[in-house]
Structure formats: structure tokens, C-alpha cells
């Protein structure tokens, strides 16, 4: 990330920036605030920069720890927080920091709708996000997937399951257009009723994103399930850039060739039909494959040739941190990946200039030149009551799960995170309300942290931070940014 010398405040949390220049730039605003005594203006400006750097790097640090790190008494720290909230450039600085994507991608959006307060108050509300997991099976056997090999739902469950999903779609409040997404679990496109479910949701105004491997996204599938054109977006998980890489990851021969053909044809059909559905890729940088990032851009450019007027919309780039207990890359891996990311960005600007790239929590920090440790929730920091007001997942049996990686059939220990079942006599709202009002909780066991994906981990860390702030007497300012 380039540092703008003309705006030292907005970039003061970025590695390599000049905190002294940022403090000087803040001096007049601090002086004009009326909050800080004249003799303390310089120190306050420095404290504001220190706060931005702390929360741009460690977004879930409790306020009391930040106060001690800066070295202020409670009254002085309170004034500093009040002053911080009055200067928009400082908020921008936090969002630009190495861990800024935790703020912009997750925390601040959930803050705006007040859902964190509902969790802390143990107040039942309809889940802000509902994951529909309709796939009865999957054609892949990905080595990093938690799915139990061979696990699937019986075909006989499809009719009742799809009727249940329809009832959930009808139940979701329509004031949040992005309240639902379709994922798994297992591969959603293996459900022959998916198109009808998507149409039903779209008719109510919902913008559904489908997370898929696109192996079954054939022209025949699109003709048979026209409702799939009502999707807001299709996000394809890409597991390699040739058949051998795909086979090593998914266990299936010829999979890349088929997925590439499906995406190419989808590009053409989307352009021919003038459909607004967005198309994106999700690519995990697996160990040893950082050098393939430039080839990823070449693949996107190849797809774009199929429909030059409707190029691919976005890529979500992620790093595989599985098997790294400390949540960090080795120094050699880090250096290689950082160099390849910069080459990737330059090649993208050259060959796919309209492509939006989301680097996620971890890779964004690496792009800034910082080795920020990912949030790592452990069994002892998992919340017994979880956060069903924020997010739940519903599988084809109607079973409602607290965490995104728990809703896989046959997964050992996952049943403890099933909080009820949607059925003809029980709505999703009733399942959540019963769990919350009854004081439902789950005692975490070793290994349970793997039921949480990156989103669940960030939400849990935020709630833990807020709870600590309240306990420390910072309830009116809990969580730093709001």
C-alpha cells in the first residue's frame, strides 16, 4: 500500500508511515476541540496516532489494555476516545491499517445494525445472516475440507428439505436484502430444486450469493433451473489452475477442465442474456502455490475473452493457515507470498484492470508489509451461547447450527452446536428464541474451534472484546469503533 504524504493522518496506521507527521497534522484539530488543555495538545495528538496504530493492527484489544499501553489515567483516556470520535481521518486510518479488513468487512457493518448488542443483552432477534445449506452431496473430496468422506443426505430428504427452505425464505425479514446466502456443507448445485428456491428469494427482494465449486454449473443446469439466473452473485471456489492441481486438492480427475468450460460458457450466456448476476472466484493460496498467483490472473483474462464486455467481477483471495497453530507463516513463506502478491497486483492492473480483488483479513495485512497474527479463537475463548442473533446455518434436514463449519453431515461433535430444527410446526425464529431465552449454551471441547470459520472467529473476538470493555467500566465506549 502506498503512503500518501499529503494525508499523514489517514495513513498513520500503515507500516512505514510517519507518526510524528501525523501528530503535527492533528495539532490544530486537537487545539480547536476544546477538550484538551493547551499544555496537553501535543501529547493528545500523539496519543490519537498511537490509538489509530493500535486498533489498525490489533482490532480486538480491550480498551483497558490500550489505555495501559498508551499510559493514561482513565479520565485522560476517556477524553482521548471522545476526541478520536470527532476526527473522521482517524477512523479512516484504522480502516487502512494492517488489520483494517476486520473492521470494514465484518465488524462495522454488524455494528450499524445493532446485532452485537442483542447478543450481549441475551435478547432474541431474528438472525442477521442465514446460511442455507441445500446440497445433498458433493463430487469433491478436498483435503482441507472438514467434511466426513462419503457423508451425504438421502435423496428422500430433498422434497421436505426444499419445502422447509421455502418456509425459511418466506420467514426472513425483508428489510435486509443480503440476509441469506447459499453454501454448504455439501455442494449446493447438487440440489435440483435450488433454482426454484433462488427465484422465491429473489421475488421477495433478496440478493442471494451462491457459493459453489461450479462443477455442476453447466449450460444444461442453467436451462433446467432458470431460477439460478435470479442470483445476485455466483462465487466459485477455485482449487487450482490445471487438472493436476485440482486432482491433488479435490481427488477428482478432469475437474479443472470442466469447471473452466462451465465458467467460460456462463460468461458467454450471461453476456448474451444481459443478466445482472455477478461472477467471482474464491482462491485459496495453498502451501507451495504462491508462485501460481500470476497464472491466476492469466486464467481470469482467459475467461474474460469469452465475454469482453462482461468481465469477471471479483476475486476473493485467501491464504490457507490450516495446520499452523500460531496462525503465522514462516519467515520464508511470508517473504515469498508477499513478493508474489505484489506481482499479482501489478499483473491484475495490467491484464484485468476492472477486476475487484478482496485480500481478506490476512493477505491485506501482508500487502501492507505487516506480519499481523490472525484472530485465533480457542476452546477457552469460545462463547458458550455463541451468536445466533448474528448468524446461523440451516441444513437440508432443517437442523440449525451455530457455526458455519459445523453444518456438515456426520461431523463428530457438531451435534452439540445444533440448537433445534425448523419443521412444519417450528419456525427459525422460534428455534433461535428458544435457545436464547432458555439460556442455551455449549461447553467447548478441544478441537471445537475448527467449527468456526473466519467470520465466526472475528464475531467471537469482537463480542469477547466488548464484554471485557463493559466489565472494565467502558460500557459507553465498548469495542472502540462503533
Short description:
By secondary structure, this protein is of the alpha/beta class.
- Secondary-structure class: alpha/beta
Q: Major sheet, described briefly?
A: 10 strands, mixed
Shape: globular
The arrangement of helices and strands along the chain is: HHHHHHHEHEHEHEHHEHEHEHEEEHH
Number of strands: 10
Mean pLDDT: 92
Low-confidence stretches: 1-5
- Taking the alpha carbons of the first and last residues, their distance comes to 25 Å
Instruction: Give the helix tally.
Output: 17
Compute the CA-based radius of gyration.
Answer: 24 Å
Please indicate the percent range of residues in DSSP E strands (runs of 2 or more): 5-15%
Give helix % range: 40-55%
Strand order of the largest sheet: 7-6-5-4-3-2-1-8-9-10
List keywords for this structure.
482 residues; alpha/beta
Question: What does this protein look like?
Answer:
- The chain contains 17 helices and ten strands.
- The protein has helices at 19-31, 41-57, 63-70, 74-85, 88-96, 100-112, 115-120, 158-171, 194-203, 219-224, 243-250, 255-273, 293-305, 331-351, 360-367, 428-437, 454-471; strands spanning 129-133, 180-182, 209-212, 233-238, 278-285, 314-319, 356-358, 391-395, 399-401, 418-421.
- The radius of gyration is 24 Å and the shape is globular.
- It starts with 18 loop residues before the first helix and ends in an 11-residue tail after the last helix.
- A ten-stranded mixed beta sheet has the order 7-6-5-4-3-2-1-8-9-10.
- The protein is α/β, with parallel strands linked by helices and 482 residues long.
Amino acid at each position: 500500500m502506498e503512503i500518501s504524504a499529503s494525508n499523514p493522518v489517514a495513513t498513520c496506521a500503515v507500516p512505514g508511515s510517519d507518526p510524528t507527521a501525523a501528530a503535527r497534522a492533528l495539532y490544530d484539530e486537537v487545539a480547536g476541540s476544546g477538550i484538551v488543555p493547551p499544555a496537553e495538545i501535543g501529547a493528545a495528538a500523539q496519543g490519537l496516532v498511537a490509538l489509530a496504530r493500535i486498533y489498525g493492527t490489533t482490532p480486538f484489544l480491550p480498551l483497558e489494555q490500550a489505555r495501559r499501553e498508551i499510559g493514561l489515567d482513565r479520565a485522560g483516556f476517556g477524553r482521548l476516545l471522545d476526541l478520536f470520535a470527532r476526527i473522521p481521518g482517524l477512523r479512516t486510518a484504522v480502516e487502512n491499517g494492517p488489520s483494517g479488513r476486520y473492521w470494514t468487512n465484518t465488524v462495522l457493518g454488524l455494528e450499524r445494525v445493532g446485532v452485537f448488542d442483542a447478543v450481549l443483552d441475551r435478547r432474541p432477534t431474528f438472525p442477521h445472516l442465514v446460511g442455507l445449506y441445500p446440497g445433498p452431496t458433493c463430487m469433491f473430496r478436498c483435503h482441507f475440507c472438514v467434511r466426513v468422506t462419503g457423508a451425504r443426505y438421502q435423496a428422500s430428504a430433498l422434497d421436505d428439505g426444499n419445502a422447509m427452505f421455502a418456509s425459511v425464505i418466506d420467514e426472513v425479514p425483508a428489510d435486509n436484502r443480503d440476509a441469506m446466502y447459499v453454501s454448504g456443507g455439501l455442494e449446493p448445485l447438487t440440489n435440483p430444486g435450488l433454482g426454484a428456491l433462488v427465484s422465491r428469494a429473489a421475488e421477495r427482494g433478496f440478493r442471494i450469493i451462491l457459493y459453489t465449486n461450479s462443477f455442476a454449473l453447466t449450460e444444461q443446469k442453467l436451462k433446467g433451473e432458470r431460477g439460478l439466473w435470479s442470483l445476485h452473485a455466483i462465487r466459485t471456489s477455485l482449487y487450482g489452475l490445471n487438472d493436476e492441481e485440482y486432482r491433488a486438492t479435490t481427488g477428482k480427475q478432469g475437474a479443472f477442465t470442466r469447471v473452466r468450460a462451465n465458467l467460460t460458457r456462463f460468461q458467454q450466456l450471461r453476456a448474451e442474456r444481459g443478466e445482472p448476476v455477478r461472477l467471482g472466484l474464491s482462491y485459496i493460496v495453498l502451501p507451495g502455490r504462491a508462485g501460481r498467483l500470476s497464472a491466476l490472473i492469466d486464467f481470469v483474462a482467459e475467461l474474460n475473452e469469452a465475454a469482453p464486455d462482461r468481465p469477471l467481477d471479483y476475486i476473493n483471495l485467501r491464504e490457507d493457515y490450516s495446520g499452523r497453530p500460531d496462525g503465522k507463516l514462516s519467515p520464508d513463506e511470508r517473504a515469498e507470498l508477499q513478493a508474489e502478491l505484489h506481482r499479482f497486483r501489478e499483473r491484475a492492473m495490467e491484464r484485468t484492470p476492472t477486476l475487484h480483488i478482496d485480500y481478506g483479513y490476512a493477505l491485506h495485512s501482508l500487502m501492507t508489509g505487516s506480519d499481523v497474527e490472525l484472530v485465533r479463537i480457542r476452546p477457552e475463548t469460545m462463547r458458550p451461547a455463541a451468536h445466533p442473533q448474528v448468524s446461523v446455518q440451516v441444513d437440508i434436514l432443517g437442523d440449525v447450527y451455530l457455526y458455519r463449519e459445523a453444518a456438515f453431515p456426520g461431523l463428530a461433535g457438531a451435534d452439540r452446536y445444533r440448537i433445534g430444527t425448523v419443521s412444519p410446526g417450528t419456525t427459525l425464529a422460534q428455534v433461535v428464541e428458544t435457545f436464547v431465552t432458555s439460556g442455551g449454551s455449549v461447553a467447548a471441547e478441544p478441537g471445537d474451534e475448527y467449527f468456526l470459520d473466519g467470520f465466526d472467529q472475528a464475531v467471537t473476538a469482537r463480542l469477547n472484546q466488548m464484554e471485557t470493555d463493559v466489565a472494565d467500566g467502558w460500557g459507553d465506549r465498548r469495542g472502540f469503533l462503533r
